[in-house]
Amino acid sequence: MKSFFDYEKPELASIFDPPFRATQIYKAVYQRSFDDFALMTDLPKASRASFSVEWNIKLPSVHRRFDSIDGTRRYLVRLQDDELAETVYIPEESRDTICISSQIGCALACTFCLTGQLGLTRHLSAGEIVTQALVAQRENLVPRPRPSPGAPSPEASPCRARASRARRPLPGGEAFNIVLMGMGEPLHNYDNVMKAIRILHDKDGLNMSMSRITLSTAGLLPAIERLAAEPMIPNLAISLTGATNEKRNELMPINRRYPIEQLLDAVRRFPLKHRQRVTFEYVLLGGVTDAPEDALHLVKLLKGIRAKVNLIPFNEAEELSYRRPLDAAIERFQQVLIENNISAFVRKNRGNDISAACGQLKKKWADEPQRVSCSH
Ligand code: SAH
Asked: Can you give the pTM of this predicted structure?
């Protein structure tokens, strides 16, 4: 069976006869959350039956859900081959955020990141990326779909039964942000990630505006240049962390291939809309990247770039030997940036108690006691 979520609407329009079925089914699946062709009573009966045999429109199941005391939820989404994709739902005051993964594991081996210790198992398909967002959206935001009269009861489907418990009813795409900051390096899985972004953006699908999608990269320079030439470009975030080549070479091996100056030159050329900025993520590692001199190096590097800096105090893990800086060091670092007219924010640690924070997504569930609630 083919996964419907792997296909863009124009591709489907060239497969389906008549082509407008693509729009019809897109709307039913993405906007009305139907997961059974039998519910699509506006399709001819024979098509419903044949589509059911050929196309899978069911979302993957949630293998496990961890709930943080701060409201953050971490999902392990079970894929066809039993690999688990990690997705994090982060409720926020203004707009909630869904953090999705682009790979199982990661090839880049950043020394401060748990996912980096795993190595790469495989890329995720476009559909596997898209469905992570749908799973988190339906569990948290979407009201129960209303099928047409005469269709089978929605309670028959566990997916819709879950949706009926959703926290609050909100419409589709504009209700949340998506960040590609979960497991993996999105630009290493370029084609599938871009396809997923186009699917999420489709106006007959989730209708996510590009300004609500952020792609975070460790700095795959050729892929950044490729991204710059795309017709649709999400927000760009660059994970910097080291502010000199010497430091960055040690922390992020990718820097040995694409040194900082070259990376930042590509960022300078990156097309930005009016008032749009590039986000730089900078992990504060106690005694390693948190000195005021590091902040001054960072100031120098970012000259001439419309930048915003997110400072992420290191999230500690037994397997990693770094430590979180003292609060005073975090404040001082931020102050140096602000004094030099750079917008700098300290990212709050979210979901720390459930290993959902930045860099903590890793197979930690296998042997750990079930100390957090799990509804699946
Ligand atoms: N590969 C992409 C996206 C995944 S990492 C990238 O590098 O941008 C998402 C963010 O988490 C990155 O900014 C990374 O620097 C940060 N991060 C990784 N490990 C961390 C840790 N232990 N504590 C805090 N942030 C971490």
From this structure: 0.90
